[in-house]
Amino acid sequence: MLLSNNHPNCASKYSRITHHFLFWDGNIVTITFEKYAKINGSTNILIIGFGSIGPAVLPLIIRHLDVDKKQISIIASENTNQKIAQQYGIHFECVTLTKNNYKEILTSKLTSGDFLLNLSVNISSLDLILFCHELNISYLDTSLERWLSEKDSDECLHERRTKLMTHKEYLKSGPTALICNGANPGLISHIAKQAILDVAEKVTNNPPQIPTTQEEWAKLVKDLNIVTLHIAERDTQFSLQGRQSDEYVNTWSVPGLLDESLEHTGFSWGTHEYELPNKVVKKIEETDNYRFIQLSKYGANTRVKTWIDDQGIFHGFVIPHAESFSLAEYFCYRDKQTNQISHPTIHYAYQPCNDAIMSLQDAVTNNQTNPDKTRILHSDIVDGCDELGVLILRQNSPEIYWLGSKLSIQEARSLVSNNTATSLQVAIGILVGIIHVINNPGQGLIEPEQCDFVQALKIASPYLGKFSGQWGVWPEESDYSWTFADLSVNLI
User: Fold this and answer.
1) Residue 224 belongs to domain spanning
2) Phi, psi at residue 17, to the nearest 5°?
3) Which of 159, 250, 418, 438 could be 55's S-S partner, Cβ–Cβ 3.0 to 4.6 Å?
4) pTM of full prediction above 0.90
5) What angle is formed at CA 413 by the lines to CA 323 and CA 141, rounded to 5 degrees?
């Protein structure tokens, strides 16, 4: 890999405390408890939402930001994890934000120069971003959410992103608002850039020059004949307390998983793809910067073949995710002479834990998006890991490459309290984003692709377990065109 620990942007102004972790498998990892950003004494951080991810990222914020705990406060609609906040000395308040009261409540808690960390569900990201922009408040979220009352509409994730981008001119300056920045979307965009550089080094037998512009990245992707890119994730964590027939289980937000999975799946439609049967396609369009397709099936009913080296081929659900669109737009090359665009097909390919798969199957059968009985696997997890990375497929080549994190539950618990393998990958992605926002004020609305990927991976990699790349050969017979139809498990 090309990532260097000596990158100049990784230098710290703050003190370092080095800790060595001996994991259950004998592997020793060194983590420097370094302060990567200083919070101004008059700046307050307000966290909205404190479910599975809030408690996971809070110890990282305290560990790696130079901030007084009195400057951090939390509001959440439920008090389930209130004791965790109190253990850290953080003010917690049980408050439910609605479309009618959010401005009044937030105005009483935030002023110019503050930071809003949005880890909530069922609260409009767009409304919060516009609110923060007007009051000069920095902002970060992990997904594009909408009000619960708006979820009866058939508006898909692509349309929500498009609606947000209509405000891009208005939001192009002012307080930095980094959207969709957790593990995926978020950290995965930095992993994708590194993976592309790794492929370039292998293909050319020379370390490539790191691109510095969007156009240079897009040209490199085109020159490497990268036509398909999977965000390939496999979660094998499990609990001895098995799922009950009337409950919905996951290793992260159950409403979040169901909300994504029970939407007609949409993703960026690479320029190498051929036309699908009409009954498969709900709609297809070409935006200014990439092609988009939405299928007639839900994400929970759509699976593709993908690959991680120790597992080989497995079947992943094609869950709609924002990185499919932001990465496609960033890697879209436009020929200046013909004005034709070129970009890969990019989408999520996710195999959740077994209990979550059974929950998804029941949710589809019962059309259940907001169940009463839910459970997040956490302290009851006894084993397993989360493997999250980028799989790169090059046209006419049987060689494939996966770069990513293989993080076990034992490692996650050793590294940071209140975490599982899944939550820590998200939490470190959030921390990386917070550091970028604090150190880069005034950028306006941005996505993860606009952040420094070298610095991001430098900060994140000690928390990602075994973070490495693996080359392989696709184990099935193929013409190596890597179209969606060829990789699909149940297209028709």
Assistant:
1) 187-421+454-487
2) -125, 120
3) 418
4) yes
5) 30
